[in-house]
Amino acid sequence: MKKLLEISLGVVTSVGGFLEVGSMATAAQAGALFGFQLIWAIVLGTICIIFLVEMAGRFAAVSHHTIADGIRERFGFNAFLWPLLAVLLVNFLVLSAEIGGVAIAAELATGISFQWWALPAAFLAWLLLWKGTFGLIEKGVSMLGLITLCFVVAAVMLKPEWKQVAAGAVPSLPQHDTANYWFMAVSILGASISPYLFMFYSSGAIEDQWDKSYLGTNRAIAGLGMSFGGTISVAVLIVAALVLGAHGVNQVDDYNQLPLMLISVFGFWGFVLFVASLGIACFGAALEVALQQAYLVAQGFGWTWGEDLKPRDDPGFSLVYTLTLFFAAVPIALGLDPLRLTIFSMALTAASLPLTVVPFLFLLNDERYVGQHRNGVVSNAAVIFVIALGFVLAVVTIPLQIFGGT
Amino acid sequence: MQLLRDILDKQVVDREQVKIGKVDGLVAELRQGKPPRVVAVELGAIALARRLGARPGRLSARLAARLSGKQQARPHRIAWTKVRDIGVDIEFDIDVRRTKILAWQSWLRDRIVGRIPGA
After folding, report:
1. Does A212 touch chain B (CB under 8 A)?
2. Chain A with chain B: Cβ pairs closer than 8 A
3. Interface TM-score (ipTM) > 0.95
4. Whole-model pTM above 0.80?
């Protein structure tokens, strides 16, 4: 019974935490421009992240190491430095984009320009990290994130042709805007397969003191939580395709176009729901990314870390998230367009994947860490697939950025 | 046991399980006619910088000397004889508060983090 409760709680938190500025913006853009055609990218990305999250949780539960600990210990400091720097940079951009998402939500709600909201949003996030516990961040904020389920309700109410939706789950070649199509696909994959997601998950497993008895729980949370989360992304894409496309909005280049998605379904409350969804989803993600930044540095250098400790007991750790949040808010406060930053950082995330995913192949097959709970053929095939995908994405991202980017 | 595989880059804790850092370097003693013997582990930025190359090592030693005095221009060392347990972490039979290893964290606590309300 207790396990069941734990599993449902875990599933709920990962569903609530799944949607963030990246998956929202990329799904909306893809839906507006290409209809249901890019659903396959969300499905593919979700399958990949299920495998990676399951492995990150299993690694932590069995070896009592986080992924960052594992990479440093297994490959040495000099090799660890590359994923460390790559993830720090990517996380920083993603954090900035999430703060931008919160700021845009505040602008939509109040009419005051988003630039003014960046620092207050970052401050509020900092305050929660400074005073809050891991449970509060993980469960409380993700619970609120369940409001994003309104996109699923909207998608169902719009009565899409489910046959066409299913057809979109199969990859197909675009009839127009070829470079843009592939750029969108890359951004969607980057938004779904975020390194911060699985690295955060492994730190969370240590914070919650998982051991081998959690392996089943872990599998259920990874599988169900991420699938439901991916469903919300697909719903965003469906709504964008049916509403924005129908209103002749093909190019989403302004956040102000986005509330239209829910307004046409729910009327005024649609506007409220959209603003709340965007604000809460981005705020929750900002908390997780800032925390992950601190986890990564503290674990990489062996400092004391833990969100349940008081800041004075882990000063290095607390200082990292404090500085990260502040500096990430600066570009938005200076007026950098959050939407462009989001799309750019999602593509960059995709390009950074090989650095963080290649270690999985070694760590999850090393008996000294995972003993008899090593990867099976399927999991290894999945890792190799993500690595191959990551390399392709790394090579194509920059040309696509130039030719297909917004 | 293999030194590079099983010791280097592992988490180090003191006897109170306080996280001190990672094993950033190893110190071995060469002995006439006998195999070399590990005498200490090294921790800290200087030991890490040395692993990147001779020049980063010298640079960080100079920086440390400038910031916190000549005594700090060498990596922190813990004698291998103090090792107590090698598991997920390596535990040394020391009290980190009696060393200078976490001096920078104490400085951070007293001067910056501790002064922010709610810390």
Report:
1. no
2. 64
3. no
4. yes
Question: Which residues on chain B are in Cβ contact (under 8 Å) with A69?
Answer: 11
Tell me the domain boundaries of chain B: 3-115
Domains in chain A: ranges and CATH: 2-345 (1.20.1740.10)
Cβ separation of A80 and B18 shorter than 8 Å? no
**Bridge partner residues of B43 (DSSP):** B76
Q: Each residue of B13-64: pLDDT tens digit?
A: 999 999 999 999 999 999 999 999 999 999 999 999 999 999 999 999 999 8
Q: What is the DSSP string of A283-327?
A: HHHHHHHHHHHHHHHHHHHT----TTS-GGGSHHHHHHHHHHHHH
Q: With a cut of 90, say whether residue A216 has pLDDT above it.
A: yes
- Output the six-digit token pair for A319: 């200082």
Q: What is the CATH number of domain B3-115?
A: 2.30.30.240
Tokens of A292: 């992950």
Please tell me if residue B11 touches chain A, with a CB cutoff of 8 Å: yes
pLDDT band at A235 (very low <50, low <70, confident <90, very high): very high
Q: Which residue has the tokens 């809050």?
A: A132
Q: Which of residues 129-188 of A touch B (CB under 8 A)?
A: 130-131
